[in-house]
Each structure stands twice: as structure tokens, then as C-alpha cells.
Amino acid sequence: MRNILFLILDLFLIFVSFSLSLYFSIEDVATRYEIIKLYSIYYLIFLSFYLIFNFWYKNHHVLYNFFSARDLVELLKTVILTNLTFIIIIFLYDRLENIPRSNLIFNLTLTLFSLTIVRFIPRFFYFNKFTKSKNRKKIVIIGKEIDCYKFIKFNENENDIEIVGLILTEKIIKGTIRGITILGDINNLKNLITAKKFKIDEILIGADIPKEKLSDIYFFTKNANINIYQIKFDSKNSSQNIDFKKIKIENFLARPVQLNENNNLYEYFNEKKILLTGCGGSIGSELVNEVLKYNPKLIVGLDINEENIFEVNQKISNNKKRNKCKFYVCDIKNREKLSFLSKKFKPEIIIHAAALKHVSISEVNQDEVINTNIFGTLNILDIIKENNFINHFILVSTDKAVNPTSIMGMTKYIAENLTRYYASKLKLNKFTIVRFGNVLASSGSVVPIFQKQIEQNGPVTVSHPNVNRFFMLIDEACSLILLSAAYHKKKIENFSIKTFMLDMGKSVKIIDLAKKMIKLNNHNQNNIEIKITGLNEGEKISEELYYKFEKPKKISELPIFELGHTYIFENFEDAVNDLRNYLKNTSQDKNELKKKCDQICEKIINKNGF
After folding, report:
1. What is the CATH number of domain 264-440+470-504+545-607?
2. What pLDDT shows up at residue 238?
3. How far apart are CA 109 and CA 106, in angstroms?
4. Under 8 Å CB-to-CB from 491, ≥6 apart: which residues?
5. Residue 533 has what DSSP assignment?
6. Bridging pattern class, strands 176-177 and 180-185
7. Angle formed by the axes of helices 510-520 and 211-223, to 10°?
């Protein structure tokens, strides 16, 4: 019904425009009405052509409230072709002897103007009826012209933000983009903030900016209490696909890794049912975010801590795919519940991120660490053995599993080799181990500890002046865990077990990290003390990412290394069972527990020739 009413309105406007165009194009008043009367017959011809082109370009389907530039182009085609066709036909009939040539211009102009204005008026009133919040965030966008245009186009009608200006990263031009003023180039930003010409709440960066320049922006925006975000569009360029990532201090502490999130390998996770252990931890919760990018059918997240479950729910609360997630409080030591949930949801992939991983705490709670990291992993592997619907197991490991001195490192290395042992029995399944170093800003990481100490004006505590670690951003690590698993599944068909090591770059001295954080927080390094406290139990000066016998091989075009095969000693299963039996002993000795784990690790290393 609405379409019919709009069409009737169009026909009325066309009639008025047609009549007026004839009236204005005929200068001889005496003959004007005679010619108009004569040409009223031709109106039906003009109308016929309009109806043909109108239906061809589907103008009658357009909702006027949402009339767009694309709709305007289609309308323009309709009006121009109608007028051209009409003039050609009339010219062939009577050579336009009685009609001035200016009639085409008048008719084209009046028709286009009237049909356009009647569409823009409803659109104007529709979008202006939404009341804008008085507490809208004031936004400045930094980027290329096209990036700024895209963001404004998709967000100009949002109720909670107001775009107050643009900073261009390419050529310096003056003017506006969709009504938003260009404030200059990136060098003007500091002056704009210090001069306080604009109240700015957030800065959105939509272009690649050198790290040094980005750290300068972070430096003076932090002092002005302005948050900065990196924004990224995917290839579809829709508003739903704008990725917001808050820039934090850890962005300047790690070597950036070039990620290709459009890599076809990630399609492996499309429409897959995935069970994720440790979903509420730093790595686990970020893995939930990463997996959701690739359209899984279902994510079943397990975590021992109900607060963690609450936090991961909050983290994805604005994600449009959050309904694909189900979270459960579950201890991986609870084999019965693991089995129940596995049978209920029938996951095809298990990502095992649950672990006790704090070195100093683990040394005091060795029994719990062994039970969780070794026998919790064993529970999951047994469930894979019992259920043929699970075909891929991904173990999240650590560099502390290489030549371990801590109970945490030893238990993770034994978990790695339990995975290898089961892979040798279950040839039809895929088992992927992904090993990497520290992730910045994870729970227990030095970054939040240092940040708190700096805010309290020190001292900043470092265990040893020469302690160094490998670092990576948490989102980079999680993205590469998934990429490693997908690469194993899609590119390495002949091996059921593969170990991958992420490209961590060079190790970083912790004391240098502390100095850099002090500087980034706008403090003079001489004003904040760095205190050396001594190595904790189980802590090493340096970590390693691989054993010599693993002989890492770089995967072409990916920041990932493939590690060589590890052989398991003959009585490995008996040694693990012996450890389990000793763990049941109520009078267990802490040193004996660690010794038994160390012996298992040593036997594996010796088996491989070192």
C-alpha cells in the first residue's frame, strides 16, 4: 500500500514538473496554452517511459526514511533516461518544431528536484527525531581520508558519540568530510589537546602509525585522561565489522607481530563446536574473543572460578555472537563432569588452556599443580579416547616447559608428553601443542605489577638485573594459537601430533622493561627506585623456547615455527601412574614430588639424545 501511495505521489509530481517545464520553455504567451494543451497528449507517452524505467531501477521499493546516495543515483538514471527517450520519440514524430530545446533542461531539472526533495524530507525528519544524549563522548579520528569517511558514515547517527574533528595521516588539506572539520595533521594533535580548543574524550586511530609516534600520542593523552583506540575495518567495511582495540601501555613493550586475520586457514573454525578449558583466564578469555571472529557453531567454556566466568561473560557482552557461548563452572580434575559436558555438547575441538601457571605459587602448592596440569590434562585426553566425535586437541603450553627448574614448568612438559603419548595411540585424531613465552598484561604478569608500583611512586621490584623473558601481546598469542592449530589440521595431513613455537623475537631484560614503563608513565627514572629482590624459587635467569633436539623450522609467511618430533621413553605411562599413586599419599614430601616430576622430564630429554 505504501509503495502505491509513493508511486501516485511521483506521478503527480511528474505531471506538475512536465507542465511547468513546457510553461517556462515557451516564451510566446499567445501560443503557450495551445502548445501545453497539445502536449498534454504526450504526457501519457512520457509517463509510460517513466514507469518502465522506474520499475527497472526499482525506485518504488525504496523506503524514503532511508533514502541514500545510491538510491539518488538510481533515481537520476530513471529521470535522465525517461527524458532522453521521450525527446527522441517526439523528435522523430514532429522534429520538435513547436517546442524549444530548453524544454529538456527544464523538465529534467524540475522532475529530478521534485522527486528528490520528496524523498529527502522524510529522511531528514526520521533521523532528527532521535534525541542525542547530552553526555556523548567527544571523538577525534586519526587516519586516511577514506578511513575517516567510513567511520563517520557508519557512526554519525550514534547517540553516544560526537565526532568533533579529524586528523589526517597522509596529505594535509583543509575542509570537511561529511560535515566534520579536518583539524590538520598528526603534529597538530598535541597543540589541540594542550590548547583545550576541543573537549576530547577519546581518540580513534584508523591508520598504521609508527610506534615512536604512537607512544608520543599515548604519552600526552594519558596525562590528559584521554583514551585512545586502534580501529580496523575488515574487507566488508560494514559498521558491524569495526574492530575497536584500546591502546594500552603493553602495546609499546612488545615487538609487534604482523597478523593476517583474513588468512584462509582460520576458516577451519567456521561452524565448529569447541570446548575451551580455562575460559576465564587471561589466555582463555582472549581465546573466546578470537574464536568468535571465525563464526564457530558453539563455544563451551569451562573454568574453575565463578568470578572468571562472570568476567568473560562481561567481556563478550557487546559481541553480536555471544549467544554462541555457554560457560560452566568446572574443575578439569572433575572427570565425571568433563565427561558429562562432552557427551552433552559433542565438541569437535578441545582447546586446553586451563593450568596453574604462576611459578612462585606453584612451588608452594605442588600437589595441586601436579593434579591440575598433569592429571587434569590426562582427564581430557581420556575423554578424547572415549568419544569419537572429538577429533582435534590443542594444548596451550609455555616456554617454562623447556629445561624446567620449576614444578610448573615440569608439569607442563609432562602434559606435553602425555599429549604426544595419546597421539601415538589415536592416529585418527589431531593433537597440536603450541608453546610460547610470556604474554604482557596477563594475570600475574610483571606489567600490572609494575604499573601499580609506579602509580605508588615505587619502588619497582625486579628479581635480578639480568633476568630476561620473551614477551608477546595476548591477542597476538591467541590468534597464533588458533593459526597453528588450523595449519596443522589443513596443511600437515600425515602427522597426528605436531608441536609449534610462536615467533617471540628476542628476549627482553625485565629491568629494561621496568625503565621503559617508568618513562611511558611520564616519570623521571631517577625519581623511582628499581629494587633488586633476588630470584624466587624455581625462577630462571633466562627461559628457552625449544630443546636443541626439536630443531625449529620456520613456516613460510607465518610467525610460527614447527618443532621436530619428541620420543617418549618406554615406561612413561608407568612413571606417570607412580606419580599419581605417590600423590595420594597423605604424608607426601614436597621435595619428593618435585623430584619425581624432574625424573620423568629428564628421562624424556635423555631419550632424545641430550
Report:
1. 3.40.50.720
2. 43
3. 5
4. 265
5. -
6. antiparallel
7. 50
pLDDT digits (tens, 9 = 90+) for 355-378: 998 888 999 999 999 999 999 999
The DSSP code for 542 is B
Please choose, from the candidates 479, 499, 477, the residue with its C-alpha nearest in 3D space to the C-alpha of residue 488: 499
Reference 252, options 512, 18, 457; nearest CA is 512
- Quickly count: other Cβ atoms within 10 Å of residue 18's Cβ: 25
Rounded Cα distance between 307 and 40, Å, is 78
Does the pTM of the predicted model rise above 0.90?
no
400 Cβ contact partners less than 8 Å away, ≥ 6 residues apart:
359, 406, 408, 409, 412, 543
Whether the Cβ atoms of residue 116 and residue 71 lie closer than 8 Å to each other: no
Name the residue among 232, 267, 265 with its Cα closest to residue 246: 232
C-alpha cell at 590: 614436597
What is the chain's length? 610
Would you state the cell numbers that stand for residue 371, as one nine-digit string? 593434579
User: Greatest CA separation found in the chain?
Assistant: 120
Question: CB–CB of 510/467 below 8 Å?
Answer: yes
Within 528-573, strands assigned E span 530-532, 553-554, 560-563
Residues in CB range of 227: below 8 A, 6 or more apart: 201, 202, 203, 221, 246
Question: What pLDDT shows up at residue 169?
Answer: 78
Rg, Å, the chain Cα set: 34
Regions in the chain scoring below 70 on pLDDT = 1-3, 22-42, 60-61, 64-66, 91, 93-104, 126-134, 156-159, 172, 195-198, 233-244, 254-262, 522-526, 586, 610
Residue 407 CB partners (closer than 8 Å, separation 6+): 362, 363, 366, 369, 370, 538, 593, 594, 597
Q: How far apart are CA 366 and CA 481, in angstroms?
A: 27
Name the 3-class secondary structure at 233.
Answer: strand
Residues 6+ away with beta carbon under 8 Å from 373: 355, 356, 408, 411, 412, 414, 415
The domain 137-247: what is its CATH number?
3.40.50.720
DSSP code string of 364-399: H-HHHHIIIIIIIHHHHHHHHHH-TT--EEEEE--G
Element housing 82 (H / E)? helix 69-94
The single-letter code of the amino acid at 172 is I
Count the alpha carbons within 13 Å of 580 in the hemisphere toward its beta carbon.
15
User: Which cell goes with 392?
Assistant: 582435534
Write the burial class of residue 488 (CB in 10 Å: 0-12 exposed, 13-18 middle, 19+ buried).
buried
List C-alpha distances in Å: 274 to 166, 352, 415, 475. 42, 10, 20, 19
Neighbours of 289 (CB within 10 A): 16
User: In angstroms, what CA-CA distances link 365 with 352, 449, 585?
Assistant: 21, 22, 15
- Structure confidence at residue 1 (pLDDT): 58
Q: What is the pLDDT of residue 2?
A: 60
In the chain, CATH 3.40.50.720 sits at 137-247, 264-440+470-504+545-607
Taking the C-alpha atoms of residue 266 and residue 479, their distance in angstroms, rounded to an integer, is 9
